[in-house]
Amino acid sequence: MYKDSKLRTLTKAFTWRVTATLTTMTLVLIFTGKLDTAIEVGALELIAKMLFYYLHERGWAKIGFGRIEVPSFVLWITGIPVSGKTTLGNLIYEELAKEKLKVQRLDSHDIRPLFPETGFTREEVNNHIKRVGHLASMLEKNGVITIASFVSPYAESRAFVREICKNYVEIHLDSDPEFARQYDRKGFYQKAEAEHYINVPGLDILFEHCDKTELKFDMRKTSLDEVRKEVMKFLHKRFLNV
Amino acid sequence: MYKDSKLRTLTKAFTWRVTATLTTMTLVLIFTGKLDTAIEVGALELIAKMLFYYLHERGWAKIGFGRIEVPSFVLWITGIPVSGKTTLGNLIYEELAKEKLKVQRLDSHDIRPLFPETGFTREEVNNHIKRVGHLASMLEKNGVITIASFVSPYAESRAFVREICKNYVEIHLDSDPEFARQYDRKGFYQKAEAEHYINVPGLDILFEHCDKTELKFDMRKTSLDEVRKEVMKFLHKRFLNV
């Protein structure tokens, strides 16, 4: 929660007083034609109203009326390995942090200290995604915007996360292993094939699409910078321009 | 993050204008002795300054200077089973929520969906407490006050949580199984003995005390309501009276 410091109130009282007293003095001068009266009224007003303004502001600081909270939301970025999820998540994080919003990134490396290593069967992956969803929803409830980026290929666990979050936005970065390999600096696909990884969407299983996905981008035709712009436009329209 | 709505600014402009224009009119009346001049100046001031005030407020809403955030902290309540941890945590939660602060309770039932069942060996308990500590520190970093209540009998994992949190406050509710049994409506101790639970502080292991514990209460001599008052006094002094 944010509060106004006494110094902020004092400074506001001063900047307002300069504007306001000059206005009063001009009005008095116009109506009376007397410069000395204008100065006398201005001088007394300066002192009296600065004090009143201070008290008025401190009183309003205790009143919640019209003080609105920017809604928090969960941005869930999904797609096959090396489709650009982490990079997009980081780009959006930076934009939102610049706007002084509370944002938490949830990528595999952020949640490693929280959840012990889990396996790669369909059930294990679903359970893992659901746990991350619980975490995202806890953060969202406390006013923290959450940007999660996980392969999360199964519609079931994504639907579960959608259900438990209030403002859930799913972004699917659509790609295919052929295309993704170009950006695969860590050699994920080569390793996956050599070591016979199981349940890799695009290789031995399908990525499960969903009709409800809010934003879908074909990464073969769209740059990450275009995606970032579209996402920010969506977030501003839906949540941020309160 | 909180923002002022346009309606709040307009309402403030109005309440301020009533105070301020009455002051101006009185001053003009005193200095000129003319009621009609006082009314004319007042009328024009009313219109001009209401507009200026609105613009002045909207401008200041964009300025961060002097807008201070109430610091978040992690309140870690520790003690043997049935020492009053959960009840105290809930009491403090209610007090802080009343003050419109963001607060998250972390009790075994809050974290069950996040962390799969863990065991009761020293190592398993330490790892579990460390994971909860990571969660608390993530919430704290995002401005959320966290109230955790766990037996957490081992000094090692409590020290770890202290290390990774910024504002960590440990509260130890000191008790013994003999005394705790009086409040043991769920029959924990009876069950623990009958089913030979392992690593129960007070029964087969010792609760590890720590010199750094910020607040320590002897529950045999102190009521939970007295503890609540002391804790709130501490929190106000240390964090909340910004």
Write up what this structure looks like.
The structure is a homodimer of 242-residue chains. Chain A has 242 residues and is of the alpha/beta class. The first copy, chain A, is 54% helix and 13% strand. The first copy, chain A, has two domains: 6-61, no CATH class; 74-240, Rossmann fold. The first copy, chain A, has helices at residues 6-32, 35-61, 85-98, 108-111, 122-141, 155-164, 177-180, 188-194, 224-240; strands spanning 2-4, 67-69, 74-78, 103-106, 145-149, 168-174, 215-218. In chain A, helix 3 (85-98) packs across helix 9 (224-240) and helix 5 (122-141) packs parallel to helix 6. Chain A is elongated and about 90 Å long. Chains A and B meet through strand 1, helix 1, helix 2, strand 2 and helix 5 of A and strand 1, helix 1, helix 2, strand 2 and helix 5 of B.
